[in-house]
Design a protein that fits this description.
alpha+beta, 2 domains
């Protein structure tokens, strides 16, 4: 995919007369993205599917008002109203994904969009599994019953996220420096994208409150595999915003 996920970047370079964005001022606070419509982009002759795939990523409860299908947030979910039940984020439709590319000025064949959406969704699912791995290993509360297990899925959800493709993380800068010094051991190629995910840990007891914790994800591209398929790597870790996260990072480094 192009450098930087188009679904996670704000843009002011598209005029209202040519942009498929329905309302540039209608910005979703969860991802700083203007809402994208399901309409055909200007000049588009081949329609793309409008169906959106529901992810496995739990969504943090929100009491914000619902949005309509047409003005739903492009990535990754339509913002629904209050609910007493668990919900998950929803990925953009191929048409919304294409509209985001058009808005950024990226020329992409329409027939390539479904595959790009599949890759986009797969990568988000894989990143979430890495978040769960960190949470199980370092942040999951001790089992309170004999039936509980440290491998149980933590009670966490994704509250919001932000694409920061122009901001290199400290770890990415460090690896690039090592690549210049030890080119045979490290690569100095920068990540093509960066996301910051805010994860909410549900309260572990009556005296505790839900807490938001930031994860940093660096996305790297690699050489195609033997079948010509694209290969991606991502580095997922908790941001060092508190002592617990620092301790987890040190333990992981020492493994």
């Amino acid at each position: 995919p192009p450098a930087g996920c188009p679904m996670h970047q704000a843009s002011n370079d598209a005029s209202p007369s040519t942009s498929p964005v329905s309302n540039q001022s209608d910005v979703n606070p969860r991802n700083n993205m203007p809402s994208l419509s399901q309409d055909l982009a200007p000049g588009q002759t081949t329609p793309l599917p409008l169906e959106r795939t529901r992810s496995s990523i739990p969504r943090t409860f929100s009491d914000a008002p619902a949005t309509t299908h047409e003005s739903a947030s492009a990535c990754p979910i339509a913002h629904s109203g209050p609910s007493d039940t668990k919900d998950t984020w929803v990925y953009p439709s191929p048409q919304q994904f294409y509209n985001a590319l058009v808005r950024k000025g990226w020329e992409t064949p329409v027939n390539a969009i479904p595959v790009m959406v599949d890759i986009h969704n797969w990568m988000n699912e894989a990143v979430w599994q890495e978040v769960l791995r960190w949470e199980r290993r370092y942040f999951n509360p001790k089992p309170s019953t004999s039936a509980a297990s440290s491998e149980d899925t933590p009670e966490i959800s994704l509250a919001r996220f932000q694409g920061r493709p122009q901001d290199l993380s400290p770890k990415a800068r460090y690896h690039m420096l090592l690549g210049r010094i030890f080119p045979s051991l490290y690569s100095e190629v920068p990540p093509f994208d960066r996301h910051d995910w805010m994860v909410r840990r549900e309260s572990w007891g009556p005296q505790e409150q839900d807490r938001l914790h930031r994860y940093v994800i660096d996305y790297y591209s690699a050489a195609d595999d033997e079948n010509g398929n694209p290969v991606f790597h991502f580095d997922v870790r908790p941001a060092i915003d508190d002592l617990d996260s620092l301790a987890a990072r040190l333990h992981e480094w020492a493994r």
